[in-house]
Sequence to fold (251 residues):
Amino acid sequence: MGKKRAIVTGGSRGIGRSIVVELARNFNCDVIFSDIVFPNDDIEAVEKSISEEAGNPEVKILAFKADATSFADAEATVKFAIENFGGLDILVNNAGITKDTLLMRMTEADFDLVMNVNLKSVFNYSKAVIKPFMVQKYGRIVNMASVVGVIGNAGQANYASSKAAVIGFTKTMAKEFASRNITVNAIAPGFIETAMTDKLSDAQKEAFLTAVPLNRMGTPEDIAKVTRFLVSDAADYITGQVIKVDGGMVM
Ligand code: NAP
Fold:
């Protein structure tokens, strides 16, 4: 297997960061990670710290500032990847946000923003990579959904809809591009320890944990390892699937 080249959206922290490190360290993969905001606007500092964490001098890890809700930014990210790596094999659509509140209080702006970041970004990046993937008759796409896209969740009408839509998008793309050896799968994480779940109160966290048979929150690494599997040769015959990584929360 030659060295692979990947884009990970929303890769500077949380699950995305862990995926960048996993692909670089354990899949010997060059990685571009995009993000909308870099702390102190210091892209190089984030690039350096992720590269140090990955600890693999054989691969390049490059940051690219891009708003995943913008199609032009998605195209620019893909162009940057191809210019730097000479091609692209893997796309991980990871960028996502929450704006939780009950429907009674949810504003149109909260709904639109979550849809744009969580769903339209998947359209933007998938469309931007699809031509090179089709030409080379190879591509691996992993979309970050959520178990709430499968079961729903009070207070997350916007988020759960966006993740359900990501699942529909994944299955449709899988059918459209299977003949070109492009696989498209989704991961549905359960309750994972990141800034996104830090917002929850201890009582909310405890309530969630009662529903998790493995009785712990997931780690970003739990998601990153499954992402590595889905882009590896071991998953060549898997497409259109939604893999729940949730400690058994939804069966
Ligand atoms: P996180 O720690 O909040 O990180 C989200 C990442 O997305 C950040 O790097 C953020 O960038 C980026 N992002 C936000 N808006 C963006 C935009 N417009 N353009 C580009 N990047 C943008 O969240 P996480 O927990 O790692 O979540 C990662 C993915 O997993 C999301 O799709 C989320 O819905 C999904 N997920 C998470 C959980 C969980 O329990 N944590 C469960 C199920 C699914 P900035 O740093 O620039 O803001």
About this structure: The chain is about 45% helix and 15% strand. The chain has a mean pLDDT of 97.
